[in-house]
């Protein structure tokens, strides 16, 4: 025991193998507080973000110029003031109303979804901004459909271009994900069908504007030199098919847990078939019209069902900051109503000149 104590090295004896530690001295006047992360070098934005910033500024410049011209322009009246409204003007009212409904759906839906995506790409600010201007323009065109103005057409064209550009950005978002265009990315990535609502809004606004410009009093409405009624009927049928594809994908993700979820994937396709038949044979108009009315009503009722779905989540609307973003999209179903209104405008033209 005594030898062990003698052979034990002293605690204060120097250790030859360990280098002597130098006292710490600050090397600069700026000292970091404890737990502070040193500043990192700035990272260059990606190519997609730089492209998105360019698209945003170009879109805002075009939109600002069109809106200024819209305020100073005096649209010309295409029909004289009279008691009876011509059929092509009534059809233009339906088309402008369809553009307004679709713009409202895009405005609210893109604002929420892009907010959930933290607006990580600057181009994401463009969709709700253009949708807001398209909504104001479409509402005014619905009130005064007999007037034609270049600025009205310009704003509708900007909405159309924004929708096509949004589809390109959403496609890029899916393809850069691991796995590419697989079912999982289609479920949870950027929705491919969402930008087409903006595209349809622009097309409806353009059709309503050109319809009153190209048509003459007591003459069949024409667009691009073709009879407007059948042309609009075929375009509406295609729009319904695209809207059904988007709703079917998301309802399949929800496993169709509610039987009413089958309605948006059954009624609109039947309506599209009836409208296509009416474009080929006027005898089917009497079948296509009630189907379009039922589709428009279904779009309004769909928002009620989606609101019920949000309320069933934990916290309901008291936790709206989370449930509204993650629950069923409230503004999505009215897209069916907007497309159906465009179809009713086509029916109005075909009924007047069959």
Q: What can you tell me about this protein's structure?
A:
The longest helix has 30 residues, at 87-116. The chain has one domain (85-352). Strands 1-2 form a two-stranded antiparallel sheet. Helix 3 (87-116) runs antiparallel to helix 7 (194-214) and helix 9 packs antiparallel against helix 10. With 354 residues, it is an all-alpha fold. It is built from twelve helices and four strands; from the N terminus they run ααβααβαααββααααα. 64% of the residues lie in helices and 2% in strands.
The shape, in one word, is globular
Number of domains: 1
Order of helices and strands: HHEHHEHHHEEHHHHH
> How many extended strands?
4
Q: Which structural class matches the secondary elements?
A: mainly alpha
Low-confidence stretches at least 5 residues in length (pLDDT < 50)?
1-6
| Global mean pLDDT | 85
Radius of gyration: 30 Å
Helix content: 55-70%
Largest sheet: 2 strands, antiparallel
